[in-house]
Amino acid sequence: PLSTHFYPELSIHALAATPTAHLVEWLDVSSSIVANPLQPDNGVLTPTTTPGSGIAWNHTAVKRFAL
């Protein structure tokens, strides 16, 4: 069984591509800096359908953390 424990925005795609998907640990650490954060629905995460990782950054929010 394949399980992931960090970066669910990326790892959910790996889980969707394998028949041995088991679980993804939901750590909501990036929802404040991504434009369309993943939202669990009844305990289920659904990967985005956009090309690549599907991550779109909230650039205004990201600037708050710039050095």
How would the blueprint of this fold be written?
Elements lengths: L1 E3 L3 H9 L4 E4 L34 H5 L4
Parallel strand pairs: 1-2
Verbal overview:
The model has no long low-confidence stretch (mean pLDDT 89). The N and C termini lie far apart (40 Å). With 67 residues, the chain is of the alpha+beta class. The protein has a two-stranded parallel ribbon. 21% of the residues lie in helices and 10% in strands. Helix 1 (8-16) links the parallel strand 1 and strand 2. The radius of gyration is 13 Å and the shape is elongated.
Gist?
With 67 residues, the protein is α+β, with helices and mostly antiparallel strands. It has 2 helices and 2 strands, in the order βαβα.
Mean of residue pLDDT values: 89
| Shape category | elongated
Q: Strand order within the widest sheet?
A: 1-2
**Which sheet architecture does the biggest sheet show?**
2 strands, parallel
Q: Strand-residue fraction?
A: 5-15%
Distance between the termini: 40 Å
Number of strands: 2
Helix percent band: 10-25%
